[in-house]
Design a protein that fits this description.
Strand content: 15-25%
Strand order of the largest sheet: 1-2-3-4-5-6-7-8
Radius of gyration: 29 Å
Distance between the termini: 65 Å
Helix content: 40-55%
Structural class: alpha/beta
Number of helices: 16
Shape: elongated
Length: about 425
């Protein structure tokens, strides 16, 4: 058996039973496949299940994970091996072979009726896919070691696993990364918020119920705390939650215009933009003053009458985007984007106390539409900016009914504060 570790606490959550044979020169998976080609696959799987479920002395609170292939579940010998109280047992469904949707549903229902929890094993190989995840609704999703090994070097793998972790959380499931063999890989896995880990870093498969060493437990706890602190060691990738946390910190610490620009520029990663600028409405609400976060210099004011889309965003308090490929877009704005070398523009309002202070303008080199998620991220950035400007710009009382108005200082006044 090999421990499956809860990474947030560095404790053993369960053990996976692994088949071993006297002839270790041939991979176990090959031996099982040979048995299937000889018509003995169900019998071998049933024997492995019977032996695993009979293991004595499992530590209290730890579950036992056993493997079964969907094609074996139709065999009476396999059903007999599993026809018992499976409370505390997690059945890992292997993905080596295709199974029809109806068969998967029937298998999942039968196993859950017997008290078992379900896991999908070796995700990333074989017949993995959304269909199996949707049909089985597993309690645990196990990443194949081939995926785990690529997490620290391959961007595409990283993004896919990040999405899988979010998906698992949304359906009440969790993810386990197989094949963790180094402390460096453990750091990456922890930063992805993967709940469980398994691999030689923790313990090798053994005949006994192996406990973790104090060093391994301490390493897991330390890595989790490091990831939670917002200062992870592996900085190649950072998920949205960490970026949002850092963004909030930057805005909350801003004391002058330069600090504001540093915070605003950090929103480009969340929005997947190449550039961003602040457009503030002047106190007379007639002109817009452009601030570039690259030069931090105020551009000449532009009349709102020349910026109908900006006026619409300010009045409607909704986001708007322009793509140079959109034949219905304002031609003057499209021409400006082309001239500046951009393919898309996203505008979101900056609102505080019911007043539109201006807009955040995000630019993208490629004419790729912004997604709903990216627009929401842009609005979060605009909300953070609005709260910061509300703090930096003093409120002045009005005579009359005791209302307070905002005298919005210009860029030069902000810089001097």
């Amino acid at each position: 058996v090999q421990p499956i570790v809860a990474l947030t606490t560095g404790t053993v959550a369960g053990y996976e039973a692994l088949a071993r044979f006297a002839d270790q020169r041939t991979p176990v998976s090959d031996l099982f496949e040979r048995a299937w080609t000889m018509g003995r696959g169900p019998a071998l799987e049933a024997a492995a299940l019977t032996a695993a479920l009979a293991l004595p002395g499992r530590p209290a609170g730890a579950y036992l994970a056993v493997n079964v292939s969907p094609r074996a579940m139709d065999a009476s010998v396999v059903r007999q091996a599993l026809d018992r109280d499976l409370t505390g047992v997690t059945v890992e469904i292997t993905e080596a072979h295709y199974a029809a949707t109806a068969d998967l549903r029937e298998m999942a229902a039968w196993l859950r009726e017997h008290g078992a929890r379900l896991a999908i094993d070796d995700v990333g190989t074989g017949y993995a896919g959304l269909e199996r995840l949707i049909v089985l609704r597993p309690d645990l999703i196990k990443l194949d070691r081939s995926l785990t090994e690529q997490l620290s070097t391959d961007t595409v793998t990283r993004v896919m696993v990040e999405s899988l972790v979010r998906f698992a959380a949304s359906i009440g499931s969790a993810v386990c990364a197989e094949g963790i063999e180094t402390a460096e890989l453990l750091e990456v896995v922890a930063e992805l918020d993967i709940a469980y880990g398994q691999g030689y870093f923790f313990a090798t498969p053994r005949p006994s119920w192996a406990a973790l060493t104090e060093e391994v437990t301490a390493a897991a706890v330390s890595v989790h705390r490091q990831a939670l602190s917002g200062t992870p060691k592996q900085t190649l990738f950072l998920d949205d939650a960490v970026l949002l946390e850092r963004l909030a910190d930057r805005f909350s610490e801003a004391e002058e215009l330069e600090d504001v620009h540093h915070a605003v520029s950090a929103t480009t990663r969340l929005v997947v933009a190449d550039d961003v600028a602040i457009d503030l409405v002047r106190p007379d609400a007639v002109d817009v003053h452009r601030l570039s976060h690259h030069t931090w210099e105020a551009g000449p004011p532009r009349p709102l009458t020349d910026l109908p889309l900006v006026r619409w965003v300010l009045d409607s308090r909704r986001a708007a985007q322009v793509l140079v490929t959109d034949t219905n877009a304002d031609r003057a704005m499209v021409e400006q984007l082309w001239t500046a070398g951009f393919g898309g523009l996203l505008l979101v309002p900056v609102i505080t106390r019911g007043t539109s202070l201006g807009v955040l303008s995000f630019y993208r080199r490629q004419p790729t539409p912004w997604t709903l998620r990216q627009i929401r991220m842009a609005r979060i950035g605009a909300s953070q900016l609005a709260a910061t400007l509300d703090r930096l710009l003093p409120a002045e009382p009005e005579t009359g009914r005791g209302r307070r108005s905002r005298h919005r200082r210009g860029p030069d006044e902000l810089r001097a504060s």
